[in-house]
Amino acid sequence: MGKRQLYPEFLKYTRSIFDHLNDIPEKRKIDLARTAAYVHEQLKKKGMAKLIFICTHNSRRSHMGQIWAQAAASFYEVEGIQTYSGGTEATAFNPNAVKAMKAAGFRFKTDGNASNPIYTVSYASNQNPMKVFSKKYDDPSNPREDFCAIMTCSDADENCPIIPGAAFRVAITYEDPKAFDDTPEETKAYADRCYQIGKEMFYLFNKVR
């Protein structure tokens, strides 16, 4: 952890996560532990592990998974982790999801594209920022083989029983905060989902280290 100059606001947010890692339901812990075992084995054999978080529109949960997984790996100093995201179709990284991630201490910059912005996302001053934008899971910027496919929504899980090139596939699905768009519960719904995904990615990489 000392090698990373993590942003103070990010560290402050993550402190609340540690007190609740064991609050994760046992069934979800099983799938997270299975994924951690795969990652550990890949790191042992090849020195790297590639994870693609997949949701229907690649607009909310899959992006949160991609970003949180990379940050959690960095926090625990797990080297060789490469995270990606994609959908069954491309849309845009939802502004409400971006707002929730900013509140968790991540810093965003954008190229200003109105329809599908490309964001650079960082959580530490001495780490290369992540490039995040909405795309299909088979986009050329994503790996084509030997990766772990993490299905973050039930629709994608049901509609894509086989992900070409995936060496390991697991469903770690989350409720869609989109259901609360334009309601008084909108901000809380996105904050809750951000926190849940962050907590579970920290649990996963705590198992890997």
> CATH topology, which one?
Rossmann fold
Structural class, please? alpha/beta
- The ordered H/E elements are HHEHEHEEEEHEH
The separation of the N and C termini measures: 12 Å
Spans of at least 5 consecutive residues whose pLDDT stays below 50 are none
- Main sheet strand line-up: 2-1-6-7
Nutshell version of this structure?
The model has no long low-confidence stretch (mean pLDDT 93). Strand 6, helix 5 and strand 7 form a beta-alpha-beta unit. The chain has helices at 8-18, 26-46, 61-75, 95-103, 154-159, 186-208; strands at 49-55, 81-87, 107-110, 119-122, 130-132, 147-151, 166-171.
How do the helices and strands line up, and which of them pair or pack?
Blueprint: H1 8-18, H2 26-46, E1 49-55, H3 61-75, E2 81-87, H4 95-103, E3 107-110, E4 119-122, E5 130-132, E6 147-151, H5 154-159, E7 166-171, H6 186-208
Parallel strand pairs: 1-2, 1-6, 6-7
Antiparallel strand pairs: 3-4, 4-5
Helix pairs in contact: 2-6, 3-6, 4-6
